[in-house]
Amino acid sequence: MLDKTGIAKRISRELQDGWYVNLGIGIPTLVANFVPEGIDVTFQSENGILGMGPFPTEAEVDADLINAGKQTITALPGAAIFDSATSFAMIRGQHIQLTVLGAMEVSDTGDIANWKIPGKLVKGMGGAMDLVASAENIIVAMMHTNRAGESKLLSECSLPLTGVRCVKKIVTNLAVLEVTPDRGFRLLERAPGVSVEQIKEATAGRLVVEGDIPEMDLS
Amino acid sequence: MNKRVANAREAIAGIQSGMTLMLGGFGLCGIPEKCILALADTDITDLTCISNNAGVDDFGLGLLLHSRQIRKMIASYVGENAEFERQMLSGDLEVDLIPQGSLAERCRAGGAGIPAFFTPAGYGTEVGEGKEVREFNGKPHILETALTADFAIVKAWKGDTDGNLIYKGTARNFNPVMAMAGRITIAEVEELVEPGELDPNQIHTPGVFVQRIFQGDNYEKRIEKRTTR
């Protein structure tokens, strides 16, 4: 079974040289720590920067340089800064090759819910609806089940949707799955030490298991 | 055309109860903190505020929430604010949540004379409910309308007395698009210079969009999440 860092590490293996990538808040942010050697990717933050670097040292902290999670950041050589409309033009116009974000629920047709729990505090969708509506390539990073132990991979989302038929791939603490909208979640890989049975048990939506399912290679 | 006013109090003259304001900033980064402080010092109420976020309890728009001067908030993300939560749950505060990219584009469109546009963001969700849907290139889009405001209030790093503005870092965010969408746009800057001192090639917001400008002193620039390595 993977922890959050393990999920981020597995997702980092999906990065391809030359890609522009938007990372959401939480587990997705950790992906930046594991960019494989020889792969050159540029991170975008939707508040208006391309070429986001690591967190600053105490001396480098600049109130005018933050990411979309409102954390202080640095800008790498070659970075560019722009306004919010330009930022979402990049996103809507599909100039960003990969979006990684968290989710509360994903359906086996690729719907995603991650912004609102009715009856509880509504914080807002931020840029998530724009990102999922337009990205060519969306990977969801999340735990396979919620705190109550219930599956987050469902046949239909029960929470208000962020986007419909948009998620392509899911990396959880148990598995890597591909969304095939007509057939359901296709199991691609197991997390180290996790059996297919465990994944079946933790998945409420349609699960497609074909042939031998390899264990993730995180080396 | 000299657009200089003396201070924040003079800059906000004419803002009345019931008006719609746009305020630049992302979180607390690049917010017009001097004008917000000046507004908190008035008895103007029933404001509709369009801003990506709503500040924190004791800074930014949180100050105007605390003093109950905001009736309606139009934003994309409003976490980090307990007073906001109280007023929203009690029904004292009306809230309209908009996808961030649609919010930015609606402001840009408002300033650019585009009354409405189609976007895929929000299709199939409650954001799309009741909105016209049209398919382009095989993909459904929803119709979103432009936003304008009685006053737009923005914060820039440098400006000249003609209203030309240069922003610094990610403090730019919503400021340029909101500057375009105000019937009257107020710019507060850290450094106000004479025309000719800014390089025309480096201007982010041309002065035509700005009606009033002043230099604020001692910017606090509070950091919401100081994160270091």
| Amino- and carboxy-terminal Cα gap of chain A | 15 Å
- State the total count of DSSP E strands of chain B: 11
**Count of structural domains of chain B:** 1
Q: How far apart are the termini of chain B?
A: 47 Å
Structural class of chain A: alpha/beta
Strand arrangement in the largest pleated sheet of chain A:
4-3-2-1-5-8-10-11-12-13
Counting copies of identical and different chains, the oligomeric state is heterodimer
Task: Write the CATH fold name of chain B.
Answer: Glutaconate Coenzyme A-transferase
Mind summarizing the main beta sheet of chain A? 10 strands, mixed
**Strand percentage of chain A:** 15-25%
Uncertain parts of chain A: none
Most extensive interface? A-B, 51 and 56 residues
Shape of chain B: globular
Uncertain residue segments of chain B: none
Summarize the amount of helix of chain B as a percent range: 10-25%
